[in-house]
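tokens incoming
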């Protein structure tokens, strides 16, 4: 689309596992058009061969960089030179740098000084603090992986619930025996009540109170506030923001509660109860959602 932002993607294969390839592409595709897709490394190393599938599937340009000397990372230098070349040609609005390496901190700082938006992507436990701080935004790949796994599990449960139940045919009639002792039902060990399939908001508040959640209305509003903040921060030209990013922002707040405490399994189910507040659309392929605040027609430039 003409209004999609141009994204230049640079991946440091020496520092990031190939298992994150799909998540990287899907996450950035929600932000705009990834018109530059480059992955850097010494492809003679056996440890990088797992990237081959991603290179073919997502159209990545594999940039070969030999190790000129032991202990020196030539890949970092090659990636940095290419990124600066793209910057000076004014081709991209967003630069996405995938690495945990602090050596990319000066690059991120320079890109921000030139007025472009810098997204860093790396792992929560190993990403450099200085590199995180230098980026406009940092996305934790391991957290994205967890969110993706939860969403897949939720879809699997739904599929199982709607699957037809097969009943085995009765092959023999068993006669009823009288005077047998009646079994006594054991008390359930489940403490929390299960939510009904469809409840009003007031019923959800009452259900929360029964399960020990204090001040449910206040906590409910906190989730709405974060959704509004996330929409403003990550909206495209039409005002739509990726829903998985909103889920990430909610987790980053380290709240002591979540949407499951109100009886919702997934975030889009929560938002669907507020059609006057949010507009939800499915992305290409139907595997994820984008949303915007009702009445908000334009996003960040």
């Amino acid at each position: 689309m003409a209004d999609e932002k141009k994204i230049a993607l640079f991946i440091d294969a020496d520092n990031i596992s190939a298992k994150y390839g799909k998540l990287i592409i899907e996450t950035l595709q929600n932000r705009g058009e990834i018109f530059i897709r480059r992955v850097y490394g010494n492809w003679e190393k056996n440890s990088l061969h797992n990237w081959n599938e991603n290179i073919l599937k997502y159209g990545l340009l594999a940039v070969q960089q030999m190790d000129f000397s032991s202990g020196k990372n030539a890949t970092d230098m090659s990636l940095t030179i290419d990124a600066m070349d793209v910057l000076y040609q004014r081709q991209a609005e967003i630069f996405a740098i995938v690495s945990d390496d602090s050596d990319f901190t000066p690059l991120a700082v320079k890109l921000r000084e030139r007025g472009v938006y810098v997204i860093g992507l790396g792992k929560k436990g190993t990403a450099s603090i200085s590199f995180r701080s230098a980026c406009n935004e940092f996305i934790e790949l391991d957290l994205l992986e967890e969110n993706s796994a939860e969403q897949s599990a939720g879809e699997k449960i739904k599929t199982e619930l709607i699957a037809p139940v097969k009943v085995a045919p009765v092959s023999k009639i068993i006669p009823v025996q009288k005077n047998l002792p009646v079994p006594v039902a054991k008390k359930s060990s489940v403490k929390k009540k299960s939510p009904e399939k469809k409840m009003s908001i007031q019923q959800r508040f009452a259900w929360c109170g029964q399960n020990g959640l204090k001040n449910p209305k206040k906590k409910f509003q906190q989730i709405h506030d974060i959704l509004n903040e996330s929409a403003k921060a990550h909206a495209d030209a039409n005002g739509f923001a990726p829903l998985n990013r909103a889920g990430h922002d909610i987790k980053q707040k380290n709240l002591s509660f979540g949407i499951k405490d109100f009886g919702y399994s997934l975030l889009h189910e929560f938002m669907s109860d507020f059609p006057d507040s949010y507009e939800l659309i499915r992305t290409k392929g139907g595997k994820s959602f984008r949303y915007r605040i009702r009445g908000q027609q334009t996003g960040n430039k």
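note: Residues 141-162 form the longest helix (22 residues).
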